[in-house]
Specification:
Blueprint (H helix, E strand, L loop, with lengths): L1 H8 L9 E4 L3 E5 L3 E5 L9
Antiparallel strand pairs: 1-2, 2-3
Amino acid sequence: MKVLDDLISTLDFNAPVRDIRQGVFHTGVLTRYCGLAATLPRDALKQ
């Protein structure tokens, strides 16, 4: 996918990981900035 390739090509991989925090459904990573990802349970999106 061109969009993903364009985004990945702008990343600077020389940033050290300073901290990682994991919860039941969330993962936070602290480098120069902070990133947060969520892993939802299978039935979370059923409405």
